[in-house]
């Protein structure tokens, strides 16, 4: 028993006359008097292969009865041209083997619509549905496109650590990683928990970003990217937040903000083009069933140049817009979701890259512009989605970086190695971050981020 | 300033007469009276580009003085055929820009040999050395080869969760993930820590394996693989253990142990062939400087069929060997490292796959063979390395699985969803696990596993 020929290959390249076997799970069955039509799906594509299972075959009655939704089955037979208009070929079964049945009374995935909420409670089975199946194939294609994009350009994929001793970005709440006996932890003389006796010899956390480590690697290998899990312990029970999500973070030495923006645009164009090319049936499914704009959005991303605005220009446009926004608009205040959407959806009507934000509202590592007020930061804002990518040129000047760290109330000592990168052969460098699940949402039109990751982690939820 | 042309491209494809710029860091400088030879490296290859920097250029003296090891530099000029025998082309510099200096008094990476122990203390700089540079390029090539292998065969890359509520394999010590206030945690009426008030509503851990989740996905998509970080809280301060490491775990529906072994062998052959093809200079470096057998090993993996033995055959061979082993040899006892090495190095003199181990010494999820005593498990043993891959056909029969779980003292309830996979459309399926860092060690001959991962995590160590 070796790797079988996936159904997608049979659907695409199978020729009438081929003798083959197909293995998968029954999606639907229509029984007529002289034969049954059985749709078999193996997860390789949205469409299954139609199998014609004739009443002339031995044990037709009992076997046909067992061919219920969810049953694992193996048919051998001959591929023939299909009479039906929904498929090019179908399999005329000569033999059937039932590997595992699925009781119609207890199997939760009967042929009907299920809410995504319900499907989340059966995360071990939901991959077998049309929608989650299409999501996971598109997700895989996105991931493959990301690797292809960077590898073709000579970027090294680097694995930055999940466990870290520093809250380097100061980016919100952190999960602690420990193997102390929490019921009875070791104590310091002051009666605090003695984390020096913990596994890593100090308190350790789950990472919120691999950027700072990516900067290390960029100063050795020039162009690198991370693609790994990151974490937020924020109690955000929303359709846009996960406690564990995958992030992509390229980092380029000898690159400024301009190069960073160019790369971000080329990157999104590449991913959308790749997925539309590889998963046309799945993308059509999202267009038809989930969000009637996904194909137009993909077309736009692929073919239209992104708009570019400075933050200062964006503020002026927002002030002139005569819109009544919920949040105030003024130079120095951060852009809110409603502002971002106005810029992308209404004013530009396409993705827009906003750059050069006020230093006060951005992280310490972003490079101060010559005006002394703004930093070389950029966000890619997409219609309907808002921020999809955030990036910056990094402060590569030692003194400026020290000032920014101190000004934000952070400890210089904690950044000794980050500062060393500015002491020894410092270079202009830049990078960005893309939340991978946000990208998959953007691509598919799926409303809830928990439905675009195999096993979502959120407050109160670590099942499966 | 956009993505620059990597030096490896110039070395491979540059033509005398090309006018170009090169950006990178000075590795070495030799100053003669009329010019300096500067070797510039940007991390894209082991070799740098030789730049000839003439004394005729303006400010030659002060600039040349600054071109010390580690200095970040940009040269523009014309590519010319090299007179030297170490390179095909070299750059005749017309201009130089120094981006960042590296003080010879304080920059730790002066031109001399450094011990790997010392380099680990400067993890933020060690990627700039020849050895760690070559390791990271080979590591990237291994990772790319893994994705290519599976994607070409229609496997989906699935991201299994890092945070998990179950110690599903019972595989040793776990790290706890929490955001409780550990100094003052909520308590149950019994005065235990009340993990129901923790972020995930229960006690959560870092995963030790994505296998069980991969099985979920294989029963929807047939062929899948994980490639992500996994964790062990074992206090093993050895050259072969990491607390955080990356693991690759394919899982195939409709596949038995035979198919699993075939895939594992094809997989290793593919990776070695890919890396030797893509990183010939780095591999030659490991051969010359680190381990004089790595090229022969790669040749053998690529071209020679792996040996295959059952555990029962292996025990018989070990008993007949007349070797005096430290650990006893008897049917029912696990193979120790010395036994594995005897089988691979001495008896087979090539990689060997040992299969069908006693049920008692293997995990609950492995499929019981018809003899009632052994399970459909397999380990790929490599000369010098020992176990590099471990896999099995999984127990797909509900009753047998329940018996195995109970027999190992585990709770059936914790496995409700894993058991469901056997209730609804169960299929024969199999998979294996590869420790990614072990693979990189195997490929490069590097002795210490901490030197084949960018930022190693081990007891007492979570720096960078």
From TrEMBL, chains A, B:
<keyword id="KW-0547">Nucleotide-binding</keyword>
<keyword id="KW-0030">Aminoacyl-tRNA synthetase</keyword>
<dbReference type="InterPro" id="IPR004522">
    <property type="entry name" value="Asn-tRNA-ligase"/>
</dbReference>
<keyword id="KW-0436">Ligase</keyword>
<protein>
    <recommendedName>
        <fullName>Asparagine--tRNA ligase</fullName>
        <ecNumber>6.1.1.22</ecNumber>
    </recommendedName>
</protein>
<keyword id="KW-0067">ATP-binding</keyword>
<dbReference type="InterPro" id="IPR006195">
    <property type="entry name" value="aa-tRNA-synth_II"/>
</dbReference>
<dbReference type="GO" id="GO:0004816">
    <property type="term" value="F:asparagine-tRNA ligase activity"/>
</dbReference>
<dbReference type="InterPro" id="IPR004364">
    <property type="entry name" value="Aa-tRNA-synt_II"/>
</dbReference>
<feature type="domain" description="Aminoacyl-transfer RNA synthetases class-II family profile">
    <location>
        <begin position="145"/>
        <end position="454"/>
    </location>
</feature>
<dbReference type="InterPro" id="IPR045864">
    <property type="entry name" value="aa-tRNA-synth_II/BPL/LPL"/>
</dbReference>
<dbReference type="InterPro" id="IPR002312">
    <property type="entry name" value="Asp/Asn-tRNA-synth_IIb"/>
</dbReference>
<dbReference type="InterPro" id="IPR004365">
    <property type="entry name" value="NA-bd_OB_tRNA"/>
</dbReference>
<keyword id="KW-0963">Cytoplasm</keyword>
<keyword id="KW-0648">Protein biosynthesis</keyword>
<dbReference type="InterPro" id="IPR012340">
    <property type="entry name" value="NA-bd_OB-fold"/>
</dbReference>
<comment type="subunit">
    <text>Homodimer.</text>
</comment>
<dbReference type="Pfam" id="PF01336">
    <property type="entry name" value="tRNA_anti-codon"/>
</dbReference>
<comment type="similarity">
    <text>Belongs to the class-II aminoacyl-tRNA synthetase family.</text>
</comment>
<dbReference type="Pfam" id="PF00152">
    <property type="entry name" value="tRNA-synt_2"/>
</dbReference>
């Amino acid at each position: 028993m070796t790797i079988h020929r996936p159904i997608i290959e049979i659907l695409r390249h199978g020729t009438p006359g081929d003798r083959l076997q197909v293995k998968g799970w029954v999606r639907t069955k229509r029984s007529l008097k002289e034969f049954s039509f059985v749709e078999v799906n193996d997860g390789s594509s949205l469409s299954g292969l139609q199998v014609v299972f004739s009443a002339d075959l031995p044990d037709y009655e009992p076997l046909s009865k067992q061919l219920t939704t969810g049953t694992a089955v193996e048919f051998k037979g001959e591929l023939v041209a299909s009479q039906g208009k929904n498929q090019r070929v179908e399999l005329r079964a000569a033999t059937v083997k039932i590997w595992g049945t699925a009781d119609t009374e207890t199997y939760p995935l009967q042929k009907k619509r299920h809410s995504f909420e319900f499907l989340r409670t059966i995360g071990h089975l939901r991959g077998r549905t049309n929608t989650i199946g299409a999501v996971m194939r598109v997700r895989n294609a996105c991931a493959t496109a990301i690797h292809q994009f960077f590898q073709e350009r000579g970027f090294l994929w680097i694995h930055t650590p999940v466990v870290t001793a520093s809250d380097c970005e100061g980016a919100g709440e952190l999960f602690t990683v420990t193997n102390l006996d929490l019921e009875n932890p070791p104590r310091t003389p002051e009666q605090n928990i003695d984390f020096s006796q913990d596994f890593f010899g100090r308190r350790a956390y789950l990472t919120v970003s691999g950027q700072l480590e990516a900067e290390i690697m960029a100063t050795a290998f020039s162009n690198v990217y991370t693609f790994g899990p990151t974490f937020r312990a924020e109690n955000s029970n929303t359709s846009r937040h996960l406690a564990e999500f995958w992030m992509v973070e390229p980092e380029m030495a000898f690159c400024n903000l301009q190069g960073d923006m160019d790369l971000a645009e080329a990157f999104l164009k590449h991913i959308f083009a790749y997925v539309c090319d590889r998963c046309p049936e799945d993308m059509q499914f999202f267009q038809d069933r989930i969000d009637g704009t996904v194909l137009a959005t993909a077309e736009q991303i692929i073919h239209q140049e992104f708009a570019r605005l400075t933050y200062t220009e964006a503020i002026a446009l927002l002030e002139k817009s005569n819109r009544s926004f919920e949040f105030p608009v003024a130079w120095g205040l951060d852009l809110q979701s409603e502002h971002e959407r106005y810029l992308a959806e209404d004013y530009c009507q396409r993705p827009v890259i906003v750059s050069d934000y006020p230093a006060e509202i951005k992280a310490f590592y972003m490079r101060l512009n010559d005006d002394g007020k703004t930093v070389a930061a950029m966000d890619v804002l997409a219609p309907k989605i808002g921020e999809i990518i955030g990036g910056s040129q990094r402060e590569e000047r030692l003194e400026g970086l020290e000032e920014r760290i101190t000004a934000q109330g952070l400890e210089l000592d904690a950044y000794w190695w980050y500062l060393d990168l500015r002491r020894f052969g410092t270079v202009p460098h830049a990078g960005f971050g893309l939340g991978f699940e946000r990208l998959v949402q953007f691509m598919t039109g799926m409303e809830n981020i928990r439905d675009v990751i195999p096993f979502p982690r959120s407050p109160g939820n670590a099942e499966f």
